[in-house]
Amino acid sequence: MGGDIDLRHAASALTPIIALLERETESETVGHRNIFCGSIDPEEGDVGEVVAMRVLTERGDRIQRWCDRLRRVQHMLQVIEARLAAERVVMSRV
Questions:
Q1: Distance of alpha carbon 77 from alpha carbon 47, whole angstroms
Q2: Distance CA 70, CA 12 (A)
Q3: Which residues does residue 48 pair with via DSSP β-bridges, in sequence order?
Q4: What is the pLDDT along the chain (94 residues), one digit of tens a residue?
Q5: Any alpha helices (H) in the chain, and if so which ranges?
Q6: Cβ pair 25, 62 in contact under 8 A
Q7: Could you tell me which of 31, 35, 37 has the C-alpha nearest to residue 54?
Q8: Phi/psi at 12 (5° precision)
Q9: Cα(47)–Cα(21) distance, integer angstroms
């Protein structure tokens, strides 16, 4: 109906939006807290690392969730771009 949508560079179009949301998230950071990421092995002890996690305002939490969602969409678009590129290569050999 409306024609084909060019998805070849759709993922890169999200980059500036994600960068803007990341900057907004930084301004909504009220502090940091240390979180242990790993497991507790009975023989080895604590296996993992301590990571500093941001403590965000309520608005910052919402912004972070949207940023994470857009990153997932961007990744899906990158997969689509790769598949379309592969299809073009295969079709050009036929």
A1: 35
A2: 11
A3: 38
A4: 455 666 667 888 899 999 999 999 999 999 999 999 888 888 888 888 999 999 999 999 999 999 999 999 999 999 998 998 899 899 988 7
A5: 10-13, 15-27, 58-93
A6: no
A7: 31
A8: -70, -20
A9: 33
Q: What token pair was written down for 64?
A: 């972070």
Question: Do the Cβ atoms of 36 and 45 come closer than 8 Å?
Answer: no
Distance CA 78, CA 66 (A): 18
The torsion angle over the Cα atoms of residues 14, 15, 20 and 22, rounded to 10 degrees, is 110
End-to-end CA distance of the chain: 28
- CA 20 to the chain's CA centroid: 13
Do residues 67 and 25 make contact, with C-beta atoms less than 8 angstroms apart? Answer: yes
Residue 8: what are its φ and ψ, rounded to 5°?
-65, -30
Q: Could you identify the residue written with the tokens 């608005």?
A: 59
Tokens (6 digits) for 66: 């949207």
Identity of the amino acid at 59: R
